[in-house]
Amino acid sequence: MAIKKNGKIAILNHARNILYIGNVCVELNSFKVDKSFSLRLRESDIHAVRFSSFAGTIVATGQKDVYIYTENRELQRTIENPTGCGYIASVAINHITKHTLLKINLSPYCSLLSFSETGESRNSVYLGSSEWIQRAGLKSHPKSPVALVGKTRAVLLQL
């Protein structure tokens, strides 16, 4: 599930790969569906859905691929894990550079991949194998760079 500050919600039905987009109705303690659509995916194990601050962009993350949709049901692009190994543990969009960052876990090692707005591979950084890096996740903010955030520390990423 993903929630925007304006009350918009995206809920993923994992069994059917259907994404529901709607608004919170606080008075009735309910969810009103505005749109729903079937995600056209190569894999069926989507484990995260989030909104981006870009105009109506939704990011669906699987273990091997990231799918970027518009709220109008159009698939903008697919970003594949080019290593073919490990799995995508975390995704964030750098709102300043418009790059998509993927944290790849290949036990016990982790790496960070950066992709341009068009999906081209830009950078690849080996992060290491320490416990905090393995458990850390990528976080983004519309006016700041992406950070790798763990329980006890965080690192700003300038990719």
UniProtKB/TrEMBL annotation:
<protein>
    <submittedName>
        <fullName>Uncharacterized protein</fullName>
    </submittedName>
</protein>
